[in-house]
Design goal:
By secondary structure, the protein is α+β, with helices and mostly antiparallel strands. It is built from 2 helices and 4 strands; from the N terminus they run E-H-E-E-H-E. It binds iron/sulfur cluster (2 copies).
C-alpha cells in the first residue's frame, strides 16, 4: 500500500478533542489522545478530506496528491 503524498495537519491549539474526526475517518487513521486528535496511522490515511470537512474547529488541514475532495460544494 502506497501512502499518498500530501499534508495532513492537526492544529492542537484549535482541537477540542470532540472525536468526530476519528469517528468519521473511514480508515481509522485518527485517534484522540489526551484530548487532542492525532493522525496515529498516517499510512492508513488516503487524504479523502472527510475529517477536514467535519471538524467544526477548523483544526484539520488536508491537502496534496491523491485528494479526491469534492470542491464543488
Ligand atoms: S473534529 Fe476537530 S476538534 Fe474534534 S477531535 Fe477532530 S480535530 Fe479535534
Ligand atoms: S483524510 Fe480521510 S483517511 Fe485521512 S485521516 Fe482524514 S478522514 Fe481519515
Amino acid at each position: 500500500m502506497v501512502e499518498p503524498k500530501g499534508t495532513r495537519q492537526f492544529d492542537t491549539g484549535r482541537c477540542i478533542g470532540c472525536g468526530v474526526c476519528a469517528d468519521v475517518c473511514p480508515n481509522e487513521a485518527i485517534e484522540v489522545i489526551n484530548g487532542v486528535a492525532a493522525l496515529t496511522h498516517p499510512e492508513k490515511c488516503e487524504i479523502c478530506g472527510i475529517c477536514e470537512e467535519i471538524c467544526e474547529q477548523g483544526a484539520i488541514k488536508i491537502s496534496g496528491e491523491g485528494s479526491d475532495k469534492d470542491e464543488t460544494k
